[in-house]
Amino acid sequence: MAKVMGVGGIFFKSQNPKLLGQWYRDHLGMEVGEYGADFSPASMPQNGLTVWCPFGEDTEYFQPSDRPFMFNLVVDDLPAALAQVEAGGATLVGEIVKESYGQFGWFVDPEGNKVELWQPA
């Protein structure tokens, strides 16, 4: 049986892909090119990983966004990353949550997408 080896990309619609890409470059340091941002496995921190997880239709986890998805980005300094996106006009959602496997923070980007930032432990 063929098996999935990992997530090969995150693809979503944008009102202005170029402008949104520039926003992520300017406020989270993502190297955004013509085809988006590439992340090699070597760029992940030691305890980093990629999770694929469907949520029930009635989940409130993606709120306040009304989008049917949310994506998670791994960062090296969560408080600084949250400050950067807030300075760029994003709306922060909730407080930083610390777990044994890292800490999490959330924001809504300029197009209304809720984004979870994760700094692995």
What report would you give on this structure?
There is one protein chain. By secondary structure, the protein is of the alpha+beta class. It contains two helices and six strands, in the order αβββαβββ. The protein is 18% helix and 26% strand. Strands 3-6-5-4 form a four-stranded mixed β-sheet, with helices on one face. Strands 1-2 form a two-stranded antiparallel ribbon. It is globular. The protein starts with 16 loop residues before the first helix and ends with a strand.
Order of H and E elements: HEEEHEEE
Number of strands: 6
The value of Rg in angstroms is 15 Å
User: Low-confidence parts lasting 5 or more residues at pLDDT below 50?
Assistant: none
**CATH T-level fold name of the domain at 45-120:** 2,3-Dihydroxybiphenyl 1,2-Dioxygenase, domain 1
Q: Provide the CATH superfamily of the domain at 45-120.
A: 2,3-Dihydroxybiphenyl 1,2-Dioxygenase, domain 1
Largest sheet: 4 strands, mixed
Architecture (CATH level 2) name of the domain at 45-120: Roll
Q: Cα distance, first to last residue?
A: 34 Å
Estimate percent helicity.
Answer: 10-25%
Average per-residue pLDDT, rounded, comes to: 92
Percent strand: 25-35%
Number of helices: 2
Give the helix/strand class.
alpha+beta
**Widest sheet, order of strands:** 3-6-5-4
Shape: globular
Output the CATH class name of the domain at 45-120.
Alpha Beta
